[in-house]
Amino acid sequence: MGTPAPLVDLLIDRESHRADIVLRRAERRNALTRTMARDFVRHLDVVDGDDEVKVVVIRGEGEHLSSGWDPDDAWQQYQDAPGGAVRKHPSQRARLIALDDYWWGPDGLYSRLLHCRKVTITQAVGDCFETGLYLTLCSDLVVASPDARFACPRWQNVGADGDLSLLIATVGLKRAKEMMYGGRPWSASDAHRYGLVDKLSIDPATATAEFAGMCASIMRDGIVTEKYAVFASLAKMGVTHSFAAATVVSASLSNIHFQPDEYNFLKDARDNGTDAALARSRSHS
Amino acid sequence: MNTSLAVGVGTIEVDDFSPLSRYDHDFAHDLRDAVLELNDHDDVKVVLLRATGPDFAPPGAAGDQDRPSGLPAWRRDFAGSAAIYQTLCFSKKVVVTEVQGRCTGAGTVLVLCSDLTVAGEDSTFGSPFAAIPEANFALASLTMRLNRAKAWALTDDVLPAEQAHAIGLVNFLEPVDQVWSRTASLAQDVCRMPLDGITMSKMLLQAVLDGHGVGREFDMAPHYARDLWGGK
Asked: Which CDD domains match (chain B) (predicted)?
């Protein structure tokens, strides 16, 4: 019996100075688990340490970049964190630790991708929801197919968390609020118009290859120098502070009180399973 | 001024918002109180500002009569942390402005301070910076980006609706006869979010706005006012 195929794969082509990080969980629309987030970060460590790699392409197998957190793992991550299984519901500290460790903290997926020393290009197709949205926001360049849709549907169920500094810097304040409160996915053409997507293409793989080829022609020192200049700007923009705030608010939103007439997604997920709750929440909206 | 409440939406209706540009203290005070009441109401998730007249905030004749009656009163009713604009900007509910016709002066400041804006295709947006010292440039640059905000402030341009939409000052642009229904559908979308979620996300947003200097820019208003009004 062979080793199961990795759910997050790393392909390196040193001749073209390109690495690909590929989500291979098409049957779940590339929903990300903690293990996948960790593997993703490990791959970023590898490419950051490989002087032959200049460009990292992020893409998903199948029709979608990513549908977001794996809903089953989203709750389990709190229970498995230190202090998470002490009582029936995970403690607040467990929620904070899990969110910081895997997603928003300095070693979490988003922070690590944002601070990758190579040029990062995301190939956005189909659903780019939640994690898919943040892979898009945290990468340097984005190529999208016309069927790509960008949103964070969880925000309608519990409230908007996540980094806002980066979102505001990318699309503007009122557009960011539209994403937070409007509850409707942005089409690829809207996302392109708003500045979230750099290039629209009916052949995103070819358009991505063209971007990657262009970036790979830049000298190594030039790429890394520019990336460190970007890191300095991100710090000045308060992105680190915003990621920390995202951790705090995200942990709180996993534990909110619902008004009697409000749809309680968290209870529905606990009582009936996450798939049923997700289906209901979407019909609800 | 008429305030009503229906399915999560608190609506404040006035003929138009130009009294704010004319520094009508009673109007500013009443509007602030109406917003505060809706902010504190547990059945409200959306605060909607609507003008029932043809213009959201038409221009008025500029002159001494349009100046506030002294800086302390102006600060109390217009520029201070408990005055109308900061009450809107830092509201715990989602603030929606619905704009038709001309939107100038204080009307545009209301649009900048609101979270979401639905506008009719006939609307226009005048730059508030030449006449309204409490207009927040940090909000403008975050909303439409720095270069566009500078051009708008310096040239005093009036932006047609389509351009305001393209640069992100307006979220949704609709034919005039469909503005109300678009606003209603937007409010319905927002109301699906739990109240706790709305409040916490607004607080998260406030932290980001603070980090970007929005609060400090409001604090600068008295300096701009002295420049504009010569220390009156």
From this structure: crotonase-like
